Amino acid sequence: MQKDISKAAAPGIKAEIDLRRRPRRGEQIIQSTLWLCGLLSVLITVGIVVVLFFDALAFFGLDEVTLAEFFTGTAWQPKILQFGLFPLFNATVLTSAIGLLVAVPLGLMIAIYLSEYASPRARNLLKPTMEILAGVPTVVFGYFALNFITPILQGVFGRDVVEIFNVASAGIVIGILIIPTISSMSEDALSATPRALREGAYALGATRLETAVRVVLPAAISGIAAAVIVGMARAVGETMVVAIAAGAGPRNFSAWGDALSGLSFLNPFKAAETMTGHMVRISGGDLSYDSIDYNSIFAIGMMLFLMTMMLNLISRWIVRRFREEY
Amino acid sequence: MNNASNGKYAAEAHDLNIYYGSFQAARDINLLIERQKITALIGPSGCGKSTVLRAFNRMNDLIPSARTTGDVHFHGKNIYDRDVDAVEVRRRVGMVFQKPNPFPKSIYENIAWGARVNGFKGNVDDLVEESLRGAALWDEVKDKLRQSGYSLSGGQQQRLCIARAIAIKPDIILMDEPCSALDPIATLRIEELMKALTRQYTIIIVTHNMQQAARVSDYTAFFTVKDDRTGYLEEFGATKEMFTSPQSQVTEDYITGRFG
Amino acid sequence: MAGDMRSNDGFPQGESYAGFVRKRRRVGTFFRTLFLLATVLGVVILAVLVLDVANDAFGYVAIQNQVAPESLAEDLEELPQEELLAILTANISAGRLRALNAQALVAERSQEEVLALVVSEVVRPKIVESWSLAESIFERARIEAELATIPNAVLEFKAWLNWDFITAPQSSDPTSAGIRTAILGSIWVTLIAFLVATPLGVGAATYLEEYSKGGKLDGLIETNINNLAGVPSIIYGMLGLAVFVRFFGQITSGVVFGAADPSTANGRTILAAGMTLGLLILPLVIINAREAIRATPRAFREASYGLGATKWQTTWHHVLPNALPGILTGVILSVSRAFGETAPLIVVGVSTFIVVDPAGPFSKFTTLPVQIFQWTARPQEEFQRLAAAAILALLFLLLTLNATAIYLRNRFARRY
Ligand SMILES: Nc1ncnc2c1ncn2[C@@H]1O[C@H](COP(=O)(O)OP(=O)(O)O)[C@@H](O)[C@H]1O
Ligand SMILES: [Mg+2]
Prior knowledge:
Oligomer: heterotrimer
Largest interface: A-C, 87 and 87 residues
Shape of chain C: flat
CATH superfamily of chain A: MetI-like
Number of strands of chain C: 3
Structural class of chain A: mainly alpha
Largest sheet of chain A: 2 strands, antiparallel
CATH class of chain A: Mainly Alpha
CATH class of the largest domain in chain C: Mainly Alpha
Helix content of chain A: over 70%
CATH topology of the largest domain in chain C: MetI-like fold
Number of strands of chain A: 2
CATH architecture of the largest domain in chain C: Orthogonal Bundle
Number of domains of chain A: 1
CATH architecture of chain A: Orthogonal Bundle
Bound molecules: adenosine-5'-diphosphate, magnesium ion
Strand content of chain A: under 5%
Order of helices and strands of chain A: HHHEEHHHHHHHHHHH
Largest sheet of chain C: 3 strands, antiparallel
Strand content of chain C: 5-15%
Number of helices of chain A: 14
Helix content of chain C: 55-70%
């Protein structure tokens, strides 16, 4: 032992020590490489924006297309060069709204149950189930809409009322599909509220329900709002379910009066192709570049991108703006 | 060989001020660390002992909000100069932490790794043995060098961390409450080890155990805070003197247990 | 007087108090049950989804032979190879025989192979009607009645998901259609997505967690990644179509590598699709990897820096190995997302009909989800059943992937 320590002494009695910074090429190269990896994600966004705007501009630059018609026209019929976005947009809004009608109450109730009522064991069982539901590919949900929900709707409301392809069944299944999104984000928001808040309510003699609904829920409302908006963005962007079950052609109207008469644009039991559904159908065929079809789906894609981006930004803003200070 | 490396002091802190964001954690710290002696930093919790200790190997650089002004002279250079490499500083100023933190690797690898990344070209087996002997751990682990560092007891883990630190042949070893997670017997062994290490190394130890400071250290620096929670050096001197005849009332209150 | 004061303090008393409490209890129990039911409904939906698919993927089929086997021989299966050969040559055209011989001399094939040929070329069984599992079990009588109306038909219980289905290539005939081409395509595409997204994603995550100093640009990268995770997958398809298929078509088609014929090749290949999905899952990989990296105890980093290690040495030797199980889990979950994607691949341009196995990154391809979509989109019931069977296969593969993720996480979970 003595010997070893004396051996160790040698470098301890210092030779000249230089603390100065030395260039570490390898480190610098690695750092730059990693930085480029991060930057790539920005390039993806730039790429998406450029690609969509470039081809959308090409679309709007065509003589056959006018911005005014795009935003006010009531029929989307490329074959006869009618490019009014409304039928597609309307179907997207309809399916998303039905989806939210299903998903918001269910998702919220599940979130409240998991965060306020469930025992840890029940939670450990139920949460993975929600995750599995979230992991099922959307094409499977499409099959489910067409082969399960639609027959049920037809059975309930009658085959003459409910078409094979219809907005309602796609919307309901979209709702199922976004339940996990809404419930898990809402649950996070609910569980993030401090214990003290709950205890304060209990101490005043509030029941569990009153505590959950009147105290915890309002405290977490911004997180829940953000969850609903993210769910909305998912619903708007959802593709396979609507491509399979909602309809294989736009629900066109000859004029606004036609659309509004009897509120036929709102009928959930008739077929209507959504923005995403149309994009899939058009690109499923052999699409030749620089055709009007090719450019048109980029214009629709740009609208879709703007819509979802806006929703995501709003959700983020809500979270930041109304972050609870506990 | 330059003056600083042969002088009486291994390191000197001059007018150190350390901030976390806008909060000042340490004010105007002046400390002379004598070579091959043990300097203890004591004081109530939250008075900035760890913060000051970590200033000696620029560990605070790793905390984004931390900012340091003032000098720490080491080998004739202010380690906070722009042209100094924090990595080089840390390679010369080893550190042992409050909670034993071996790497999730074998005992052997725990020691060999630091040497290897610092470009050690000698015989690694010898270095491992030598370091483990230096940390008084060799006899206990020589037959299980390939086992995980986490198979050891807490006290053994801490000595492994010391062995790991001395394997890279630092000048100074910083220890931040190295015994606070250990039982009394393991603590005693580490204290004996520290004394043995002073034949080779300069040690700065943070402890909030007064007896420990009195037992092992040659010099004691007493830190405390006032209402602004900014730590400052209340008294600094030879341990014997400070514990027998403290200069300041605050120190006396603390040492005698009337405070903190 | 005192009693008066109490009854006037505004709170219910006595019997009305008891009633009030009972009502609050009832309301509480009602909503508690409601919340529980909502949660159970989530589980039920998942079960119903799987059961519905399984229900469609098994059941009786009515098979109508174009030529009754009894008219050929008493028991085909017992016949020796030569006699089967004779039946075959007598019943098919000379051209068809030449085509078969071109694949492999028919005369030299085994008894079983020739038997299979006789069935597929001469007997030509055709599924003319099919029933779901539930119908097969509970409505046997109705099925028998319907069968009686179909001339020359026999009833047979068919598992649409069977080994032949998994190993057979795509076909326009529902009796012989399989998903091998689609599974191989899926594996190829997912593999490339994995190869693209893993290094880039882990690299970006490492940068953001270990290197970023929180500057403006770093903040932009961070916000951007979160936003990208919310972009609909079909938009990635458009990006892939415009960039990988069209702009880099020379590369993705393999023409520049001399791997494809320039006159016919285009960029609608496995490579373009895989890279598209790679970008799609990149934000997911980054977000998951960041979490795993962040979970690495500070103590390891401090110990490493304390020994004079550089940032990269610390990251490479301590942080990443420690985060590896978490990163792996995240990567597998992201990859299983890629495995189930449909829309972006349709936009990028899968082949609608392809019977040859993909041979490499420059091949045309289809994938399992796309195959499911194409079958689901066809009105005939048989194709719905094929879709159901393919869905079961898809769900099984995804379950395997996810189970692997969980296994890896537990297997490599660090014990310290
Ligand atoms: N990473 C940090 N960020 C912000 N404040 C810190 C950080 N670390 C320590 N502090 C603050 O600095 C002061 C001194 O801390 P520390 O040096 O750990 O004290 P001691 O080791 O004497 O207990 C305390 O008030 C503590 O809250
Ligand atoms: Mg401390």
